[in-house]
Structure formats: structure tokens, C-alpha cells
Specification:
With 352 residues, this protein is of the alpha/beta class. It has two domains: 149 residues, Rossmann fold (3-Layer(aba) Sandwich); 190 residues, Up-down Bundle (Dehydroquinate synthase-like, alpha domain), CATH 1.20.1090.10. It contains 15 helices and eight strands. Helix 5 links the parallel strand 4 and strand 5. The protein is globular and about 60 Å long.
């Protein structure tokens, strides 16, 4: 059985970034007096200068660290700095790149990690992995631990770009095909499914699928989306791997990143939502349910919207399996011929 840990807190409230020290003091006594480092980037420093100043005052013995590239080397350098200066608390303030770097540095240095997201674009805020740059444009997923606490300020998230919140919705919707791929893997290889992790990931999907509030900038929806993304991260922590959240649709996303990064950029959550459409067709699932969701949230998953040509689309799918050759998905048996993929591309162009 996989050993897993859970965060001390998942706190979603208005204005909570002004009292992080207070809400954390019950599980880490005297946290406000401990040496802390606040990890963010220069852009966020400019946008949220007042909030960062409040955090510095809340944690009296703190300093600011600016992420530059989100690479593995920078994460290791930060971990070394944390160890050498006896820093006890790492506060990640930002989006995916900042949070992943801070998370991995805290994991290596064994510091308490507080996750303070400035947007809700994917489930990395609670996942037990960090995606970091390695060589050139290549990125690699590194195992680490989930945050000690996840603290979400609703007021701040309401100001996030709509596209980033839509990416968070897309990341959650993609679990529809990811979970089915997990079942296909179990049937084909005999690998086991962690029922509890599966249930939590499905709950994350259902919370978005059956949520009546579709206004992504509303306070109630932000709370639902936060919980969905956190459940996705916790499901991976419990399973001990990314299977509850990652199937063929994620391999398509990785293939785009690895093969066409110099030509197109698609936010992770949008790319996996886009990939879930062909994956669902390959799996012979209820495509109507998936299309309904994508339309209800107006997710921009038409390939040409992101400058993905038919040729790119075909090649990305045909190379997708190579991004995780050890992972069994529907791609092991799907028809990935040019004819079949061109037909799907045309259908997506007309449908979305």
C-alpha cells in the first residue's frame, strides 16, 4: 500500500492572505517567527506588491526570492540556499512554474511548504509532482510531496485572467478520459487501481460536470474549482502516481510540448481538454457528455485557435505514446492512422 500524507489545511476564503500566520499557527506553533522565504517572480511582484508586503510583515523573519526560469537547476540552488540559511518555511506565491519550483525546493530541503496560488490553472497546486525545465525547452516531472497547506484567497483569484481559470476547468474535465485509461490499463496489464484515489478524482470531475454555477469569476465557482483541483492532486498523492489525472490526453499535451514548442503554445489545462476529445473517441465513450461540458464552459479547444495545423495534430498524436512509453493508455490499441486523425481534426474544427 502506498504511504501518503495530507495537507494540514485547505483554506479558501476572502482576504485570507492577510492572516496566513494566524491560520497556520495551530499546526505549526510560532510559524510567524520562523525563518521564511517567499518564492514568486518579478511579474507577480509588480502585480501584487502590496500583498507580498503584507506577507513579509506577517512573517517577520522572511525574505523574497524571484524565480527566473523554473528549471531543475534553479530549484536545487534554492533548496541549497534554504538548507544553508536554516530556513524553515517556504511560501510559494504564484502560478504553476513558481509553485512547482518552490514545492520541489521545499521537498529537497525538508521545509514546511505553504502553497498560495495566484491562479487556478491546473492541479499542480496540490499534486505530489513538480514539472521543471531541464535542457533547452524540455521539461521533466519530478516526484516530491504535496504542500503542507494550501491557502486560496478568493479575492485575489477573482482578478486572475479568465483564460487561466478556463485552463483549470479543462484540467479537471480531462479526468473523464484519464480515469477510463486507468481502467483500461488495469484490464490489459493487471495493474491495480486504488479505489479511493479513483473515487476522489471522479469526485473532482463530477464537481465541475454537475456544478450549476458556470460563471467562472463568481466566488462560489472559484471555491468549487479550488476543491476540484485539490482533489485531483490528492488523488495522485494517494495513488502514488499520476494515473488518476493523466491518460492519453496528457500524452498528447506532452507531445505538443516536446515536438512543437517552438511553433505553438497551448496552456496545459486547455491542451489536455483538447486531447480529451480524440481520447474519448478512441475509447468509444459518451462523447456527447464531454462536448456538452466543453461548450458549457466555452473552453477554446479548436486546434486552429492555437495555430495547430492538421499536420501538427496528426504528428502530435502519432508521437504521443513515446512521451510515456511505460504508460498503458488507449493509444496502445487506437487507430492512429492519418485518415482517422484527420477526420477527428475536421470534426473538432467544425464542432468547436
Amino acid at each position: 500500500m502506498n504511504r501518503f500524507r495530507l495537507p494540514y489545511h485547505l483554506l479558501v476564503a476572502e482576504g485570507i492572505f492577510t492572516r496566513v500566520n494566524e491560520v497556520m499557527s495551530d499546526c505549526v506553533p510560532g510559524i510567524g517567527r520562523k525563518k521564511a522565504i517567499i518564492v514568486t517572480d518579478r511579474t507577480l511582484q509588480g502585480l501584487f506588491g502590496d500583498t507580498l508586503s503584507d506577507l513579509r510583515q506577517d512573517f517577520h523573519n522572511s525574505e523574497l526570492y524571484l524565480v527566473e526560469e523554473g528549471t531543475f537547476d534553479q530549484a536545487v540552488d534554492l533548496a541549497k540556499y534554504i538548507c544553508m540559511h536554516d530556513i524553515a518555511v517556504v511560501i510559494g506565491f504564484g502560478g504553476g512554474m513558481v509553485l512547482d519550483l518552490a514545492k520541489y525546493a521545499a521537498f529537497v530541503s525538508k521545509a514546511v511548504f505553504l502553497c498560495l496560488p495566484t491562479t487556478l490553472s491546473n492541479d499542480s497546486l496540490a499534486s505530489p509532482v513538480a514539472v521543471l525545465g531541464t535542457e533547452g525547452q524540455k521539461r521533466k516531472t519530478f516526484q516530491c510531496t504535496i504542500p503542507s497547506s494550501i491557502i486560496v484567497d478568493v479575492n485575489l483569484i477573482m482578478g486572475a485572467p479568465e483564460g487561466q481559470l478556463l485552463a483549470g476547468v479543462g484540467d479537471t474535465i480531462s479526468k473523464y478520459t484519464a480515469l477510463n485509461d486507468w481502467k483500461l490499463d488495469a484490464a490489459a496489464t493487471g495493474n491495480s487501481i486504488d479505489d479511493f484515489a479513483y473515487m476522489i478524482s471522479k469526485m473532482a470531475f463530477n464537481s465541475i460536470c454537475y456544478n450549476e454555477e458556470k460563471s467562472i469569476k463568481s466566488k462560489s465557482f472559484i471555491k468549487v474549482l479550488t476543491q476540484a483541483l485539490v482533489m485531483g492532486g490528492l488523488a495522485m498523492e494517494i495513488a502514488g502516481n499520476s494515473r488518476p489525472s493523466s491518460g492519453a490526453e496528457h500524452l498528447f499535451c506532452h507531445s505538443l510540448e516536446e515536438n512543437f514548442a517552438d511553433q505553438v503554445y497551448v496552456p496545459h489545462g486547455i491542451a489536455v481538454a483538447m486531447g480529451s476529445v480524440p481520447a474519448c473517441i478512441f475509447q468509444k465513450r459518451n462523447i456527447g457528455k464531454l462536448k456538452r461540458l466543453l461548450h458549457e464552459y466555452a473552453l477554446p479547444v479548436k486546434p486552429s485557435q492555437w495555430k495547430i495545423t492538421e499536420d501538427m495534430f496528426v504528428e502530435a498524436w502519432q508521437l504521443a505514446k513515446k512521451t510515456r512509453p511505460d504508460r498503458y493508455t488507449i493509444l496502445d490499441t487506437a487507430d492512429l492512422s492519418r485518415t482517422a486523425l484527420c477526420e477527428i481534426y475536421s470534426e473538432m474544427e467544425q464542432e468547436f
